[in-house]
Design brief:
This protein is an alpha/beta fold. 47% of the residues lie in helices and 15% in strands. The chain contains six helices and four strands; from the N terminus they run αβαβαβαααβ. Strands 1-2-3-4 form a four-stranded parallel β-sheet. Strand 2 (48-55), helix 3 and strand 3 (83-88) form a beta-alpha-beta unit. The chain is globular. The model has no long low-confidence stretch (mean pLDDT 88). It comes from Panicum miliaceum. Belongs to the tubulin family. Keywords: GTP-binding, Magnesium, Microtubule, Nucleotide-binding.
């Protein structure tokens, strides 16, 4: 990371911050992901940090340590992230079952919902407009107090992966 960092960031005209996507249930997303966020915060304290964090669910759990991983990771997100978009694993599965009528949702189906949500959240960064044109302005308009930066996100209409729009 240290050797590629100056080259990659040196070519950018405008650099607003970082976006990190990770799951808090597993060891890699919770431990390594929050370590990466902490290291980036140390290198670039003046840049915004936006995370899309998938929180585990007791109903849809693969390992017994998911609640511990998530609990230990939240403190790092409070300290080192500026904006956390919370994605609930259980809600993703419920949307697939109830709304999209999928009997056995795959990770691809869940990832499709997550990518559509991420696209909706970040469209103000990609397209011109009057409001929320960068990560800092988005934070100013959404965050009432610095430590209250966890947001439940959603979008409509819900469509499955294979359907035509």
């Amino acid at each position: 990371m240290h050797s590629a960092k100056p080259l990659a960031l040196g070519k950018m005209r405008i650099f607003g911050g970082f976006q990190v996507c990770h799951s808090l249930g597993g060891g890699t997303g919770s431990g390594m992901g929050t370590l990466l966020i902490s290291k980036i915060r140390g290198e670039y304290p003046d840049r915004m940090m936006l995370t899309f964090s998938v929180f585990p669910s007791p109903k849809v759990s693969e390992t017994v340590v998911e609640p511990y991983n998530a609990t230990l990771s939240v403190h790092q997100l409070v300290e080192n992230a500026d904006e956390c978009m919370v994605l609930d694993n259980e809600a993703l599965y419920d949307n697939c079952f109830r709304t999209l009528k999928l009997t056995t949702p795959s990770f691809g189906d869940l990832n499709h919902l997550i990518s559509a949500t991420m696209s909706g959240v970040t469209c103000c960064l990609r397209f011109p407009g009057q409001l929320n044109s960068d990560l800092r302005k988005l934070a100013v308009n959404l965050i009432p107090f610095p430590r209250l930066h966890f947001f439940m996100v959603g979008f409509a209409p819900l469509i499955s992966r294979g359907s035509q729009q």
